[in-house]
Amino acid sequence: MKDIAHLFSPSATLAVLGGGICGLTAAVEAAECGISTHLIEISPQLGGRVRSLASYFPKLCPPSCGLELLTARLRRQSRLTLHLATRLVGYAHAEGRHTLTLQACDPADAAVSSALSTLRCDAVIIATGWRPFPLAALAERGAVHPLCLSNMQLEHLLSPDGPSGGIPVRPDTGTPPRRMAFIQCAGSRDVNHMSHCSAVCCSATLKHCRLLLERLPDLHIDVYYMDLRTPGRLFALREALSGYEQAGRLRFLPARPFRAVPDGRGMRLPAENTQTGEHLAHAYDLVVWATGMRPSLSPHDMPPAAAARPNLPEGWQGPLLPQAESLPLPLLLDRQGFVMEREESGLFAAGCAVRPMNVADSVRSGAAAVTRALGYLHQRMDAASRAGASETERTAREGRDHA
Amino acid sequence: MPERPGIFLLACPDGEALTAGLTSRWGGRAVVFSLDSLPTADDMAAHHQRHGLDALLLVSDTRTLSLPAEYALPQWLAPDGTRLPLHSCTLPPLPSGPALERQHAAHLRRSVLYAPSAGPESAAPTPDQTLEAARHAREDALHMAVARLLAQQPVTLQPLPSSSFRLLILGGGWTGLAAAQAAAGCGLSVLLVEKSDTLGGAARFLPRELPCAAPWDEEIPLRLEERIQAVENDPSIDVIRGVELAALTGQPGDFQATLSDGSRHACGSVLLATGWQPSDLSVLPGLEDCPNILTAGDFARRFQEGRIPAAHIVFLTDTEALERQALDRATEEELPLLQRRLRQLRASHAVNSLGMLRLARAVAERFPAQRPASTLLFRQMTLPGILERYYRKAQAHPALRLARGEALDIAADAAGIRLRFRQAGLGGRDGIREVTADLLVLPESMPPAGDGIPLPVQEGSRAAILPECSRFDGYAASNFICFPYETRRTGIAAAGCAREPQTLASCAEDAQGAVLALLRDMRAAAQGLAPHPRSGDGACPQFELARCTRCNRCVEECPFGALEVDADGLPRHYPARCRRCGTCFGACPERVISLAGHDMRMGRDMMEAISLPRVEACPRPLALVLACENDALPALQAAQARWGAHPAVRIMGVRCLGSVNMQWLVDALTSQYDGVLLLGCADGEDAQCHFGAGSALCRQRLHNLAESLRERGLDARRVRLEPTARDEAAVLPDRIDHFLECLAALGPNPFVRA
Asked: So what's the ipTM on this one?
């Protein structure tokens, strides 16, 4: 066997929605497997959410490194067509193929609409990713304050290209903070907001602590947490900080401050230590809310009119599904807006559109979705060739009958 | 080697001047087009036909990410079916405003250092001269790109004569079964090898329910038997039980696997799904002899077999106090293994949290009359992500007691097991509680099966198949976050708990991801193309064996085991293992290796392509920068996009610092350059290099080169290696200027003056 091309129909086409790390990986790998692939990204740039990260845990390596390799691979793929600054505006399904209606969007002016184009494909991978949970939703907890910021905002401040050269400062004084607090599970594991754990915030906070403590020798950090969840080998993140813990520059406090209270020159965090029962009320220069992930297709981000029912399987009893107006696909979404895959209809889902996950898992999820999509394309090819074969057989038999 | 390349200057404001420069430098050899934008495929076809072009160079002023698919590198397919080498190059802009001021100030500082006797007035360059020098640098970037293009040799693909797309899966547990189904679903043929007599692995002993799909809050059937049936009945999957892999030879697409029963099988790639092995309790002191204390895996098996009576069972997820005791008691010889086991235990915490929660719940459901049937004592639950929903639901179960606290000590006697713990929320003495259990269940440390390098060594190859196992506590994990299946052995990947302790849902997804990586590697091998990260590159190292001295340095330094010594003592190349990093070229002291253009001549031609008219007019000191194309070169381009062309450096991208032959440095220092700056990925513990450890290798070679430089009367400080990450564009100009100032302090290079 020289190639695996015969395993799939030569015209088999895959569309990938979302050019973040997950979708980009999926598209590049699918094209390298010989499948004609279209990568559709709404923004004018590839890389999605990871572009705004200062570094990846656990190695603290720059996201641009992996993106660089992926885009270099992309540039060598003649089977991959890139649609940047393009949105999906329409969808139709006929004879087992999907027809996507695409529209180029003007990044400067969303109101400017341009001509539509259509793309016919056999399978779609949804890799629409996530949005940061908005700090504004935690206004009742005092999170909307100049001395409060979200972990994604901190990520930007820690980036070497950030506004203060990678070192955060107090916005009022312009000086580096001496005491900082992280509040974990801000919006996550919270029945009022998101019932899920966002999977990455604990590891991200440990990464932030390391970057901050390395860069600011006078800084003390307190981390308020419920559980410190570092699955798999990520436990090493905490280990790497033990020197700072011993030096008293970093404390992990099992407490959940409900509210941040402005207090003189800083923010005070009243809380109760759930292990010792002790009452805490420390004050800080900056408070970082470790806000989690909300899927991009979350119903919270959609106008109420968008909750129309799409064409669902007959008799669907599911608990789910406001339809995402921003993505006119017959998707099943759960209450939080996570996508449930519909493998049987050629709609595959990957990355943080499915459940919260870190970068390595998103990459893996993208690759796994391509494998499932290839399986789907092969089964269809198989079915088509079986149908073709029985057609030939029938014709031959008819020929004999005529004779 | 191209005879008539077409050079397309795209949206370059100084297109006219550049065209004139190209014409005077390269004479009639190249056809130059100065255009406003990228030509359409039709226009390009017309140009190709009219001028008989045989290679293309697309030169842009700004870094454009999205070349349309018809301009995919490294070849352009002409309508007449010929394939033209296609290169692209981005010219740095000219510095202006503050950038020019900065560059001029640095230029001034250096020139004063460089020619101290000339007196500040006569030696000092003007800002106009700095700008002029930057213009030279910009033009030279173009000339160097043309020289690179002209040095290209035609690529002869080396597809495998016969290639197999059969996937060999080692391990018939949950991961192996999922991989077999995924691969067979794509139409591949599969050989599944299981060392025990039954399929299913550790999943056989799990309660038959687990949350592994939306909505993630309720247990769904495991369906292991169905899965095993499906695999056994699939005509494209062959299952062999009771054997292990004994030896593996060949290369991706053409491996020969010898099993422990002596049978030999051809396969195209190998998936390591060997999972984990049961841990013993001997790591924790005093517990190994107590019959009422079990590990979670052991407990699960007995529970599954109906050998657990109705009793109060305590599950303990965190054993830190016990571990501390064990560490205190361990002898010096025992310590390394114990520490490794404890690290594996940490890595397994998420699996233990979910697994013990599920077991505790299963116990509570089997013995509903017993109150409480099971207690789960934890210091923390690592159930990240969507599984929080399952945790939340389990908390409401009436026969299951969850308690947060820290276990202090365990005492076992005839009455049962007494476990003292400090309950969370209560301070001081009040917080100490005791719970009596009929049976105590401790977490599994889930060491990878084989505990170390799980595959046999490739015959004749110096290195083990997965060198990464030695780095990650025995797990076959990848060094790369963005490329979780990248290992040092092409066509061999790991998935499931062999890679990292993980839950069943995660194992299944991991299996699918690994299958894709292997499929991609097998396809590349069959076509004779490079795998990730240089996927699509067809150039393979060529050996001029007549001049080879059999020193075998290339064999020793190849990071991917792509070279072996043949019966005549000569290097034998396995193209499908090769990643085209060029390390062998860098290693060869006789310079008999080339990669279709990446050879001694290319380096020399690029170094000499610069158009400095006279030594006196040069901005001095002048340095050659050799930058790794993966990270350092893009960082350098980003820096130049912001600060403009640096007037005193000339930049040459290389595949990896490992691909830098030391003769290039000698050539540079004995021609026009005062120094050479090497920019590559950081080495060491968190190395980022995708080609082994190119920077470390280069550093070693530089060490050896120093002596021969001194013999020529050259200071070894004229060569410097600086680790440079992709995101360090902001600090690169300073780094370069600092090197140039060191060169200036060394004074003129004697070879340049001569």
From this structure: 0.94
